[in-house]
Amino acid sequence: MFEQRLGELGAQHLTRRLTPLHSSVGPVVEMAGRQILLLASNDYLGLANHPEVVQSAIEATQHFGAGAGASRLISGSLPPHQELESALAQFKGTEAALTFSSGYLANIGIIPALVEQGGLILADRLCHASLIDGCRLSAADFRVYRHNDIDHLRSLLAKNRRTRRTLIVTDGLFSMDGDLSPLPELCQLANDYKADLYIDDAHGTGVMGPHGRGTAEHFGLDTQIPLQMGTLGKAFGSSGAYLAGPSTLIRYLMNTSRSFIFTTAPPPSSAAAATAALRIIQREPERRARLWANRERLFSGLTRLGFSLSPSVSPIMPILIGNPEIALSFAEHLFAEGLFAPAIRPPTVPDGTSRIRVTVTSEHTPSHIDQALASFQRAGQSMRLI
Predict the structure, then answer these.
(1) What pTM value is reported for the model?
(2) Domain limits at 355?
(3) pLDDT tens digits, 233-266
(4) How many domains does the chain have?
(5) Does residue 71 belong to any structural domain of this protein?
(6) Which of 93, 109, 132, 144 is 20 to 30 Å from 119 at the Cα level?
(7) Considering the chain, what is the average pLDDT of its residues?
(8) 282 pLDDT band (50/70/90 cuts)?
(9) What's the CA gap between 372 and 368, in Å, rounded?
């Protein structure tokens, strides 16, 4: 059965394989015995290898061990966890925060706890898989609205009974298209129809906003969105996730979120590393400045070369190809040029929208960007994409 299914996926050019790195994540990595320029990392601010972040992880491991040993509600709640949650709440301007082992665990645990049977969840069509799975795990009614289509969402809300609990779910910054959710309009709809708004800001945290507080800060809505989830494995350079919000909500989730209750606590090293990364994010705004300068240099260069890019406004820059076989071949041409930017295919993206998902970090240099553009030009011309 498995071989048959794998064969079917292979015929559609939709099988996947692991691509090991033999070095730490950085602008240049070692892959397949070669030095490769990496344009596929979510380590947006280059903090995964920052000496202060690494040293904090080492010290936490030496003091508290490699693992927490139990769930937070048994005996696994350690000082690094509490310190991180306190720092996150202060950073986000909320009363409290709760951390999870991953963004996936956060979403599949929080959403079912927020809306139970009899309620309604409305989610953007391009929400991350973990959000969709969290919505499906809830016993609430679940509907999908067209991507960033406020009129469609309004029509669904207008059909709903205002007396039942309703949750609007969206990414803040969409991970495969690089575009932003229209948060001001979503906030207004949520207020008009007495709904709650839940934002997954995995890719916006540390990147968007004047202080890196995320997409809500970018739109000046910090205090108007009480349910802000984010991850610690992207701009923070560590691992895990959090929800920042009112203290009563945090206490409620501690008692109802199954993926928090029944999971061994995150390693103390990852919590300590994330706290160190948060200090650096607040102390070194020049990292975001470099990130955005690199983003503009690469985006304008790719556009000038004639590639078809999505309307991205972020360090995520998808080059739209369409056909998965062509996208795979283009990625292979890029790798031959010494550049790793993999093909993204269904079901990660909708049918007919396969792409090369390019990401840039603060640690890429102008010469890295120019090298990447030269590689894209040669590979694109070889395949007659430009």
Answers:
(1) 0.94
(2) 13-42+285-382
(3) 999 999 999 999 999 999 999 999 999 999 999 9
(4) 2
(5) yes
(6) 93
(7) 96
(8) very high
(9) 6
